Amino acid sequence: MYSFTNDYSEGAHPRILQALLETNLQQVAGYGEDPFCREAAELIKAKMGRSDVDIHFIPGGTQTNLIAISAFLRPHEAAVSPQTGHIGVHEAGAIEATGHKVIAVPGQDGKLRPEDVQAVLDFHVDEHMVKPRLVYISNTTELGSIYTKRELMELSSFCRQHNLLLYVDGARLGSALTSEGNDLTLADLASMVDAFYIGGTKNGALIGEALVICSEQLQTDFRFHIKQKGALLAKGRLLGLQFRELFRDDLFFRLAEHANSMANRIQRALRSLGCRFLVDSPSNQIFPILPNWIIAELQKDYAFYIWQQADEEHSVVRLVTSWACPEEVVDRFIHRCTELFQSR
Amino acid sequence: MYSFTNDYSEGAHPRILQALLETNLQQVAGYGEDPFCREAAELIKAKMGRSDVDIHFIPGGTQTNLIAISAFLRPHEAAVSPQTGHIGVHEAGAIEATGHKVIAVPGQDGKLRPEDVQAVLDFHVDEHMVKPRLVYISNTTELGSIYTKRELMELSSFCRQHNLLLYVDGARLGSALTSEGNDLTLADLASMVDAFYIGGTKNGALIGEALVICSEQLQTDFRFHIKQKGALLAKGRLLGLQFRELFRDDLFFRLAEHANSMANRIQRALRSLGCRFLVDSPSNQIFPILPNWIIAELQKDYAFYIWQQADEEHSVVRLVTSWACPEEVVDRFIHRCTELFQSR
Amino acid sequence: MYSFTNDYSEGAHPRILQALLETNLQQVAGYGEDPFCREAAELIKAKMGRSDVDIHFIPGGTQTNLIAISAFLRPHEAAVSPQTGHIGVHEAGAIEATGHKVIAVPGQDGKLRPEDVQAVLDFHVDEHMVKPRLVYISNTTELGSIYTKRELMELSSFCRQHNLLLYVDGARLGSALTSEGNDLTLADLASMVDAFYIGGTKNGALIGEALVICSEQLQTDFRFHIKQKGALLAKGRLLGLQFRELFRDDLFFRLAEHANSMANRIQRALRSLGCRFLVDSPSNQIFPILPNWIIAELQKDYAFYIWQQADEEHSVVRLVTSWACPEEVVDRFIHRCTELFQSR
Amino acid sequence: MYSFTNDYSEGAHPRILQALLETNLQQVAGYGEDPFCREAAELIKAKMGRSDVDIHFIPGGTQTNLIAISAFLRPHEAAVSPQTGHIGVHEAGAIEATGHKVIAVPGQDGKLRPEDVQAVLDFHVDEHMVKPRLVYISNTTELGSIYTKRELMELSSFCRQHNLLLYVDGARLGSALTSEGNDLTLADLASMVDAFYIGGTKNGALIGEALVICSEQLQTDFRFHIKQKGALLAKGRLLGLQFRELFRDDLFFRLAEHANSMANRIQRALRSLGCRFLVDSPSNQIFPILPNWIIAELQKDYAFYIWQQADEEHSVVRLVTSWACPEEVVDRFIHRCTELFQSR
Question: CB D11 to CB C232 under 8 A?
Fold first, then answer.
């Protein structure tokens, strides 16, 4: 049984474990003030050519979102999110638990455009309603789609024009930045948004996300918020060390590229078999629409998530590939799909 | 330079890293539903002879406290804590951020007695004030002291009699349960309190605390709270695996014993040199009162925390030993102290 | 200029002011423990033939909603509301500010049916999402529609079957219970829902809503929540006295009847002129669809709210009548409408 | 039986009721945007010679405190309060319910001095602790004492020097500003603090407090916070009208003066009988220390609050006089006290 359920089924890239072993008995300061965190932050800043951003390492994605958003907003302000957004659906009300409404808007393929946000502004006109203040998007989105440089720039300009903060959930940012068709860089991101995070957990780390705060006015006192929400790890070294390893060379990007290429290979193969897809995804999550009987056959050897019903005889499934996904598994999976499609 | 600043300056016990390596590419379910978490929970339950408790693995201590306390209380209810309690002082208002007041009471040596709590109940008489509902203590306390079985039983009976929940912060529970003079067991704890946590981070794990919920009515829906506060790690395996390793045999207790014995050795030696202590601590944190000039000399080779001024010429320092503290370092430290004391 | 903008443009029914005058210098206990509050509660209980409900008087509607909902829910639980619901749109994020998500569902004419709630339950399947726990509806709804006894009974049964609390926002409950076609009584309500409030502000009081808590398990410690949210007025007498006056005889219902009949009269007249309506409302809010030029003419003498655009040449307006609305004003308004319609 | 229990046992000053009657059927805008609120705000601004402050009318004191403090602070910031402060003791955790810790410091006679706040700053040194940001005081204090102009100026300078906000709970501000020995004016207050409120409820209004926000940066979006916390009354006229009446001439101050002079008269009389006091209070709350048998005798005809035990045979009682307290009652009370003292 091989699982395409998600990209966090395995542990960490071996180089990360190696780094943990090598530094294990070194005594270092706690709470993210160790040399590994510092080095990691420097490496990431260098990668985006910016020394004026703040970087904090936080154990998980939901936590990063809730800390950032609650630190950035005043009590009456709300976040705007696409309807599929992680903060609105799959965080068990984490943002609301910090006191803020998440305004969900339909969007398109998991993405937000200026006109989507404009509609929210048009509706929220006075103090009887919350004040939309932060736009939350994810890249890649929950549907595997990505923002082009132009799309993000348009959204960014709109936000600045309307005094809205722009925040990017980058749980799968590695995958986005190495996707076919991507023309965004870390440096672009840093110049266009107020804050974003670089996901480690879903790209080869054991645990950890790197929150990048670009806007100076959002940087003040940020460590208080990390501490208050319980995310300031005593052994912060665990987070710093992993990001140091991922950004010491381009390991972070290579791992994401591998995951993407595995998904692309499956997508191309299925397409050539006549299969359609829910959304056009260049990243490591793909959403083929398969006949139910083929799904049933595949489930004998592969685990994956059934996303939604398509029609009476078809369903959309989600296949996720990871940094650790072996090529031979992918080839075997494609071979099996081919057999099944051809036996119809 | 050797650091006695805390017990989280090093990484993890080598057996833990080894276990991470060995299981690294095994694909397992996310969010704490993997076999490692299950095994770890079973091992801990077996150690306390209870199958009716719930065990959840959570990245850090502040987080465990805030999730548990906010899940257990209704909005108008408050926690009672000794003035030195971690939740009242060193968690950046984490409990208040979930909406609850922490009522601080002086206590004695970092501990609470029934009469301390009774005074709180006497003061809080109507709905114009918060309703005290949960008693928070730590074992070992922030001052290194421990609760005897009898002391805990008295507090437990008092709480049950007054419909108060009793919660134990066990960031250093390993140290407490292996201290000289301790007569408490995990089984005792589980029978006397409503919930407690077993600290991993300060006893040889890279990260992680095991929250044990003993009272059935507090168990319902608990995973929602972990998720909502951002503590449900995608790779929950990281937590489960470490606790499996710590509780597979008695590694957890052996590590704590080692830390305690290193601190005891220093304490005995200093005492024989005529040194007094802020508090009588049998655990891995000790608080000698040293002449300021000796402190200055020691700081050339050793790092530690200056706790408070004692008088014009003396200060209280905190020395913390860890599972990783080498005997030869302790002997060298004692030797140096002896030299300094005798040179007066 | 006469205003049909809302039903809180005037002060209070003269009998209420009279009662304030007569009791003004009587010294009474503070914080709702005065004889007026007690009498008012007894009168309301008598009206519904129930002695086992708890009644609390609270200054405003948003406040009543936020206190009740935050007191009833645990942190991970959410409220389900129709998309037009006051808590989801016009309370500036009051519910979220207490930590809870409001799940908006489309509904029909401002109302929720069991199938609407079922869809929410189907979607929320695990601890990665909030747990739907309370169903919020209003009667009359924000669109002036009402629940029949049968509709409410079906929703109530559904909620009990699925362990959901049912809560009714009764800001305009007087209007609902005296509407043409209504077959619900206060006693019915109390037997079908867990809590509801009887709106005073929009039915002749200066200020004040009476929250009725029907379910015993929701009654415990409720005054703590009122106090904590700042709604326990020192001079609670102000609230008690008004509700005593409104329920001493049937003044409460008579005032609502008057408001309804004024709106009905306008509705019938407009209908006979060929005017269509956004929704079929038997209550004191009506939503005619008028030609824009007629709206412009009417606005010279009457104030009202333009609800939404209907098409290029028509808009929906909201007309609200109150307990204080004079018949002659209504007749004059109808007369003017008739002139305008006939001049086309 | 006459009650000296508090200053909110009666209704409102007759002129206020008269104003309600006279304006009752006037249709005005809701939510504090009516002409009465505007006039009242203008009158108060004129009284302090400031046009750059913002004034909001809010139903109650706890509510005003919680709205202001939660609007002014970011999540990690805390309020510093004297141990006797209303927000720390008698608001059922209202401030904590908005997410903020209240740091209680002993103070002196219910007041805070710069050195009291300095001690808090010295203790709170890093992000593991909350950040003290707002200093909360009350005038008069809970013990009836008042701040002199010099005392308040010293505290104000200290706060500005340390980037702390200064907030004054003025539930009994009328009494403070008309106390013997007072040298503060409304204008002084407005120039020294960031925000304060002028209490109506305890000085002749039925309900209502006027929050004055002096610092421009705290004024932005404030109505959102009032709405979100449920304090934006639909019939805001009720609040505006009362403050218009109180500040149309000096009624507000005359009512407070009367209350003070009644308490002073009792205090002088008791003192001349040899009675001691817990605190030296020039305001409408006094705290005589009486023999228990005299207390028992007085309780036959008068209600008041027993504050605390003094010794085995004496207790401190609290006597509060109000705007409505008749001179003859005070004279009779003094007469009775004299009889009792002389019968010893």
Answer: no
> With an 8 Å Cβ cutoff, are B76 and D93 in contact?
yes
CATH number 3.30.1120.10 is the correct assignment for the domain at D252-342: no
Test B229 with A233 for CB contact under 8 angstroms.
no
Its ipTM equals: 0.97
Q: Looking at chain C, which residues constitute the CATH 3.40.640.10 domain(s)?
A: 14-251
pLDDT in tens, C166-211: 999 999 999 999 999 999 999 999 999 999 999 999 999 999 999 9
Is it the case that residue A198 has pLDDT exceeding 90? yes
**In this complex, which of A21, A97, A238 lies closest to B228 when CB atoms are compared?**
A97
Residue C51 tokens read as 């002695």
B76 interaction partners in chain C (CB closer than 8 Å): 221, 224-225, 227-228
Counting as contact any 3 or more CB pairs under 8 A, the partners of D are A, B, C
User: Nearest-CA distance from A231 to chain D in Å?
Assistant: 11
Would the CB atoms of C225 and B76 count as touching at under 8 Å?
yes
Cβ under 8 Å to B: D residues 275-314: none
- pLDDT for B269-324, tens place per residue? 999 999 999 999 999 999 999 999 999 999 999 999 999 999 999 999 999 999 99
| pLDDT digit string, tens, across residues D219-229 | 999 999 999 99
Residues of chain A numbered 54-113 and touching chain C (CB < 8 Å): 75-76, 78, 89-93, 96-102
CATH number for the domain formed by residue range(s) C14-251 = 3.40.640.10
CATH superfamily of A253-342: Aspartate Aminotransferase, domain 1 (3.90.1150.10)
Residue numbers in C near D14 (CB within 8 A): 24
d(CA A78, CA C88): 13
| CATH fold for domain B2-6+252-342 | Aspartate Aminotransferase, domain 1 (3.90.1150)
pTM of the model: 0.97
